[in-house]
Amino acid sequence: MNLASLVVRAQPAKMAVLRDALLAIPGAEIHAETEDGRMIVTVEETPEQTVSTALTRVQQLEPVICVTLAYEHSERATEEAPAAASAPADAGGASPESVRKFQEA
Fold it and tell me: pTM of this prediction?
């Protein structure tokens, strides 16, 4: 799962247009908005596009003044994650448990 939280600043008079445009982006969700033109938006990776593609689409919307990345989360699918037991024997003195926690982060 990959997702990002954004603070979107836009022209206040065009918030309704922006709202419709954002909701047309796959994986985008609006969580809050203010009268002065700010929105809290999350974008989540979908089969149609990556988070970075969605972020670029948000930035290119006409009413948008700027977009600030507030948070980004990325994790591998569990079937792709290497097992802690498969860590190299010389892991810099780290215990298998420490290696596993690092790999999960």
Answer: 0.69
Q: How many domains does the chain have?
A: 2
Task: Give 2-38 pLDDT, tens digit per residue.
Answer: 999 999 999 999 999 999 999 999 999 999 999 999 9
Give the neighbor-by-neighbor strand order of the sheet with 64-74.
Answer: 28-33, 38-44, 2-10, 64-74
Question: 29 and 13 share a domain?
Answer: yes
9 and 27 housed in the same domain: yes
Same domain, 30 and 62: yes
For residue 98, the tally of other CB atoms under 10 A from its CB is: 14
- The answer to whether 4 and 57 are in contact (CB under 8 A) is no
Domain harbouring 23, CATH code = 3.30.70.920
Burial class of residue 35, CB neighbours in 10 A (0-12, 13-18, 19+)? exposed
DSSP state of 83: P
Domain containing residue 84: 79-105
DSSP state of 64: E
